[in-house]
């Protein structure tokens, strides 16, 4: 298709194919959301006694949607909200979507910005008006689309307009964006004015201690000062490299991060670091890092290429990955090592199982470095924020790397309380591969995260076939943590609170 289908077509035909593809894409998205809405209808009932469970029927459906779409739990839940709104609240918009008349982007905006409407008559009028104006909505930018939908909402239900988050009651703070450059993470948020002023003053004070030879820009200094605060410091280490600089010797903190790197990356970084050290006066010390980064390395088990092969292909560089954040740029690992980051190898576990339920620190580290993320389908929660799950439940299954994997708390509850012959089942292979079977019978295979970055043989000992697992206890769900109020009640309370803010906005 990419090579020849459009080679003989004129420009008009190519553009027509683009438009037709967009329409077909919208129709396919509408069909997918219709299927999600049907699954929600079948499995989520307001009178279900499990609604107060921490992992409620909505979560159970979200787990199946997440696996089918290969997305995380939160995004799956968002898709369910859109699907439910199209089915139950906006039938005319849904019909237009099914025909490919509007895109998934427009549908997402409409469903979000009409969430606060409670009056069914007003909602029906807005649904009709939006469907009639669909052709005018498509060319709009995101901001103009928001304004157009809000104008209609305001006409029929002024209290339902979603306001920008500009009040003290909606302050928040965020870490990371999908467009972040490698080796950096964006942070943004809204603080109380007093807190922001204190932070600004503290950062400015930390920057005053730097000498004139610090090579960083003002923006880089501010960013590094915030990082130093996060590591528990009240000083910012100068980056001039001079042993006589009063600000060069800031003590390293006990805040721990993990960087996993293959041996080639460690060797490259060490060579660079030694080269930099040789260029300085003997006895000079590099300034301490504000964060004690632990680089865990392993040896590449791949075969050695022939000299001729090495000459014909580009040099293979090592890889280093910050756990939960992806690959690091090549300059950052030497920088960490030169500033005191500890380097230690990941030890392959032995063949024998450990005798207790809780894995040792060494075994837990191996499993987390091998998996790198939650092992449920579509989930990307970093391994250091996950529980360690026995695939075959302990004590029937051993505490052994071939029977341990990382699961975030949400998916750990899914397996614990929704597992069994008619629920979620999982099988783990010695290399860490996990094969999941969903309640619907569909199977999903997930692989250790380290397999995406490294040529690391993560295979550990074969285990004997697991024994027959007894059926779940009848009172299993009674042991699940409970919500303070149901999800539906929480959702209704949030809508009520946001409408109330539109009546009586905060004074600051």
Structure description:
The chain folds into three domains: 150 residues, no CATH class; 147 residues, no CATH class; 108 residues, no CATH class. With 508 residues, it is α+β, with helices and mostly antiparallel strands. It contains 16 helices and twelve strands. The radius of gyration is 28 Å and the shape is globular. 41% of the residues lie in helices and 10% in strands.
Q: What's the N-to-C terminus distance?
A: 57 Å
Radius of gyration using CA atoms only: 28 Å
Q: Helix content range of the residues, please?
A: 40-55%
Strand content: 5-15%
Instruction: Estimate the mean pLDDT confidence.
Output: 82
Give the SSE string. Answer: HHHHHHHHEEHHEHEHEEHEHEEHEEEH
Question: Got a strand count?
Answer: 12
Number of helices: 16
Q: Key features?
A:
508 residues; 3 domains; 3-stranded antiparallel beta sheet; 10% strand
Quick structural summary:
With 508 residues, the chain is an alpha+beta fold. It contains 16 helices and twelve strands. Helix content is 41%, strand content 10%.
Layout of secondary structure:
Blueprint: H1 11-43, H2 57-69, H3 73-88, H4 91-98, H5 104-113, H6 120-132, H7 134-137, H8 142-156, E1 172-175, E2 187-190, H9 193-208, H10 218-230, E3 256-262, H11 263-278, E4 292-298, H12 307-312, E5 320-322, E6 326-327, H13 332-338, E7 342-345, H14 361-371, E8 387-390, E9 404-407, H15 409-418, E10 425-428, E11 434-437, E12 443-446, H16 487-503
Parallel strand pairs: 3-4, 4-7
Antiparallel strand pairs: 1-2, 3-5, 5-6, 8-9, 10-11, 11-12
Helix pairs in contact: 1-2, 1-3, 2-3, 3-5, 4-6, 5-8, 6-8, 9-10, 11-13
């Amino acid at each position: 298709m990419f090579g020849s289908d459009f080679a003989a077509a004129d420009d008009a035909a190519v553009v027509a194919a683009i438009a037709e593809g967009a329409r077909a894409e919208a129709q396919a998205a509408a069909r997918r959301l219709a299927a999600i809405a049907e699954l929600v209808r079948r499995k989520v009932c307001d009178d279900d006694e499990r609604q107060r469970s921490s992992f409620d029927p909505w979560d159970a459906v979200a787990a199946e949607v997440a696996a089918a779409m290969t997305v995380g739990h939160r995004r799956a839940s968002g898709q369910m909200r859109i699907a439910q709104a199209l089915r139950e609240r906006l039938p005319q918009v849904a019909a237009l979507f099914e025909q490919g008349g509007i895109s998934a982007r427009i549908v997402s905006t409409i469903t979000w910005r009409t969430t606060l409407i409670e009056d069914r008559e007003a909602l029906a009028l807005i649904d009709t008006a939006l469907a009639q104006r669909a052709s005018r909505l498509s060319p709009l930018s995101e901001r103009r689309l928001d304004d157009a939908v809000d104008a209609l909402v305001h006409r029929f239900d002024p209290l339902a307009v979603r306001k920008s988050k500009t009040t003290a009651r909606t302050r928040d703070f965020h870490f990371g964006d999908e467009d972040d450059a490698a080796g950096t993470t964006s942070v943004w948020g809204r603080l109380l004015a007093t807190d922001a002023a204190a932070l600004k003053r503290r950062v400015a004070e930390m920057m005053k201690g730097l000498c004139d030879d610090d090579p960083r820009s003002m923006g880089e200094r501010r960013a590094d000062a915030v990082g130093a605060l996060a590591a528990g410091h009240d000083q910012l280490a100068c980056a001039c490299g001079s042993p006589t600089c009063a600000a060069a010797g800031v003590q390293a903190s006990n805040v721990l991060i993990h960087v996993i790197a293959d041996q080639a990356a460690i060797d490259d970084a060490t060579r660079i670091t030694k080269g930099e050290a040789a260029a300085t006066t003997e006895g000079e010390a590099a300034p301490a890092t504000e964060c004690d980064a632990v680089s865990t390395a392993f040896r590449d088990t791949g075969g050695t290429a022939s000299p001729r092969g090495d000459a014909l292909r580009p040099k293979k560089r090592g890889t280093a990955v910050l756990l939960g954040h992806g690959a690091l740029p090549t300059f950052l690992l030497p920088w960490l090592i030169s500033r005191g980051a500890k380097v230690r190898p990941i030890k392959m576990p032995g063949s024998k199982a450990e005798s207790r339920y809780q894995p040792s620190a060494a075994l837990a580290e191996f499993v987390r470095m091998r998996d790198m993320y939650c092992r449920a389908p579509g989930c990307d929660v970093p391994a250091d924020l996950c529980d360690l799950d026995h695939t075959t439940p302990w004590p029937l299954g051993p505490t052994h790397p071939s029977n341990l994997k990382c699961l975030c708390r949400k998916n750990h509850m899914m397996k614990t309380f929704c597992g069994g012959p008619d629920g979620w089942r999982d099988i783990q292979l010695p290399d860490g591969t996990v094969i999941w079977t969903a309640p619907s019978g569909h199977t999903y295979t997930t692989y250790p995260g380290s397999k995406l970055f490294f040529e690391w043989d993560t295979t550990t000992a074969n285990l004997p076939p697991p024994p027959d697992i007894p059926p779940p206890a009848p009172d299993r769900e009674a042991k699940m943590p409970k919500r303070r109020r149901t999800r539906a009640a929480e959702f209704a309370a949030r809508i009520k609170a946001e409408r109330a803010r539109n009546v009586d906005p905060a004074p600051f």
